[in-house]
Amino acid sequence: MTRTTPRTALATYDPGADEHKDRDLPALARAVEAAGAVAEVVPWDDQGADWSAYDLVVLRSTWDYSWRSEEFTAWTERVAKVTRLANPAPVVRWNADKRYVGQLADAGVPVVPTRYIAPGEPVELPEDREYVVKPTSGAGSRFAARYPAGERDAAVRHIERMHAEKFTAMVQPYLTGIDATGERALQFFGGRLLHASRKGAVLTPGTPYDADKVAHPDLRPHEPTDAERAVAERALAAVPGGASALLYARVDLVDGEDGRPCVMELELIEPNLFLWLHPGSVTVVAEAIVRAAGER
Asked: Does the pLDDT value for residue 233 go beyond 70?
């Protein structure tokens, strides 16, 4: 029997008794339905879900994945064997480990300079400038903190805590341009630039690494410059499989020490789309999802 109406699953997290944090989900599901496909919102760890029943599973807001990274990546690989997954499972596994920043640098993409400290390796920290410590597996600034020049004891305890949980630490200079021009998020969907947003600094001095942070302070629409678009496109071209393998992507940029944009992070798993801030993008996203579902 030929299926005429594509079926899509918008994979998310289970909020339990709490309010769901994905503001975009209800409107997006309605828009996908209006664009001609069935849209069901399903927690990724729903044990009763039959993922083979869908033509496309979109990783929409699986925002608890970084606490269960290996479980999550194994789940994506199982789903990819029975249906189409966006983004693809190999991209998910690559992007779940922020050591990809070093790979982007090796490919010639401008990035925030990054040093990695794996468990058992000596801890070397900057002495002459502010810096940031965070894990290679994380989301929402979890386990991230900003330290003043010369501060070592608190940062070492921070790294020891991450190492105890088998995380590799990342150490990056704190680029002060963030305080002036913020962090810009360029959103791509269906192979095209969808929209861009700008937010203020997330990490404030003195905030402990294990404290909750406001993930998107002072978020507002942004008109990307030609230079920002060029850096973002270079980053996406360096992804294994290339930009054509991606249904969606968010490229987070900041100004480097030379004042030019560079990549802070590349969000290819479950980026917040900020559709509530860019309501004109909802239909574009929904239509791209329906087209992708029809390609199975």
From this structure: yes
Residue 268 has pLDDT above 70, yes or no: yes
Candidates 141, 67, 85, 132; CA nearest to 296 is: 85
What is the rounded CA–CA span in Å between residue 108 and residue 111? 9
- 198 phi/psi in degrees, rounded to 5: -135, 140
- The enclosing H or E element of 39 equals strand 38-43
The string of pLDDT tens digits covering residues 165-201 is 888 999 999 998 898 899 999 999 998 999 999 999 8
Please state whether the peptide bond connecting residue 87 to the residue before it is cis, i.e. omega within 30 degrees of 0: yes
Rounded alpha-carbon distances, angstroms, from residue 32 to 1, 182, 242, 291, 296: 23, 32, 26, 10, 17
pLDDT interval class at 226 (50, 70, 90): very high
- Cα–Cα distance for residue pair 108/189, rounded to 1 Å: 24
pLDDT for 103 beyond 80: yes
Which DSSP string do the residues of 228-257 spell out, in sequence order?
HHHHHHHHHHTSTT-GGG-SEEEEEEEE-T
Give the separation between CA 222 and CA 199, rounded to whole angstroms.
Answer: 9
DSSP string, 158-222: HHHHHHHTTPPEEEEE--THHHHH-EEEEEEETTEEEEEEEE--S--TT--TTS---SSTT-EE-
Q: What is the mean pLDDT of residues 252-275?
A: 96
What is the pTM assigned to this prediction? 0.93
Between CA 28 and CA 10 the distance in angstroms is 9
End-to-end CA distance of the chain: 16
Contact 132, 158 (CB under 8 A): no
Residue matched to tokens 């678009």: 229
